[in-house]
Amino acid sequence: MANPLWTRFLIAGFALGVPLSPAAMAAPGLDVGQAALCSAAMKIKRDELPPGVRDALIFSKAADYFTRVGSDVGASIFREAETDHREALLDAQANGNPKFTKAVDGCRTYYETSSGE
User: Fold this and answer.
1) N or C: which end of the chain has fewer CB within 10 A?
2) What is the DSSP string of 54-75?
3) What are phi and psi of 21, to 5 degrees?
4) d(CA 56, CA 63)
5) Measured over all CA atoms, what is the biggest interatomic distance in the chain, rounded to whole angstroms?
6) Per-residue pLDDT tens digits for 2-41
């Protein structure tokens, strides 16, 4: 039987790939699951880098952006989804699964091209 957390991670990861197409980038905001996935990915990546590194600032701003977007849609649902995604991403990272890197790259691209910040 499939792990429900992993299943949600895969579904959100697939959905995350959609906004990277030019047509989809113009679409309105992210849903709670996508925002939670991106917030978790950005926070994990930010915490890996020493303070003062330019990328750490970018990841920090991106995490704040995705947290704002997700909380605006539904704060309690967002927090629960972010926790689930954080666990799945840390597991993927620890096991060398490329899903973590893909999530970080996709979320950073979305932030840099669509956030308006």
Assistant:
1) N
2) HHHHHHHHHHHHHHHHHHHHHH
3) -80, 145
4) 10
5) 44
6) 455 545 554 555 444 444 333 233 335 788 999 999 999 9
